[in-house]
Amino acid sequence: MAGFRSLARQVRDPGCDLALRRYSLRKCLEKFAPYGHRATWDHLCSRAGFGPEDRSPEPARLVAALEELEEARSVWQAYETEFTERRRKEKHDGLRRPGSVDDWHRMTWGGFGVAWCDDPRVHPRAPLAEVLRRLIAALERAPGSCCPVCAGEHLVWRYGLDHDPSSGPVCADCGILVPRPVLTDRALAFARRERLLMSA
Question: What pTM value is reported for the model?
Answer without folding.
Answer: 0.90
